Amino acid sequence: MCQASNDPSRAPSPQPLAHSPLTRPCVQERNKQIIVLGLDGAGKTSILHFLALNRVQRSVAPTQGFNAVCISTQDHQMEFLEIGGSEPFRCYWEMYLSKGLLLVFVVDSADHKRLPEAKKYLHQLIGTNPVLPLVVFANKQDLEAAYHITDIHEALALSEVGNDRKMFLFGTQVTESCSEIPSIMQDARDLIAQLAADTSDQA
Fold this sequence. Notes:
With about 200 residues, the protein is of the alpha/beta class. It has one domain: P-loop containing nucleotide triphosphate hydrolases (Rossmann fold, 3-Layer(aba) Sandwich), CATH 3.40.50.300. The protein contains five helices and six strands, in the order E-H-E-E-H-E-H-E-H-E-H. It is globular.
């Protein structure tokens, strides 16, 4: 259980992973971050490394706290804030999401037993903001047990997230055999950049 106030201004300052090459600061306000959430083991950190470096750099342990990552594209600079997905850190999710530009939610497509848990947290998060853009990564599509993205759409009840919300679902995998960023990951990165820019302009 988190020992913290519900006031985001009094919550612990996000701390990047030690020795991470991704944690250079972005030239933008801290409250303009893209929030990356999901249960522990879903692959959040691996996806962020892949988007930033165009290569696999697997994390050796679950994120303990916060991981701030700056990703630059040709036209945009984005700061992502990943918050650990294990039980002690989930109480921080809502307080940081309230100031986020959009939500990136990552699920393990092959972990069937935890999909209901992922659904519960996802709907709790987006229920407080009916228009917050949502990008879901159905990760680990390379595993034999992985559900197809249509099954993930149903398991997470994404049809219930709201008619006014921009919502996108991508099937992803981050494997050692990837020599370059797959086109779907490039498309996802470009889409996130555009959503963040549009949301920031409307703020």
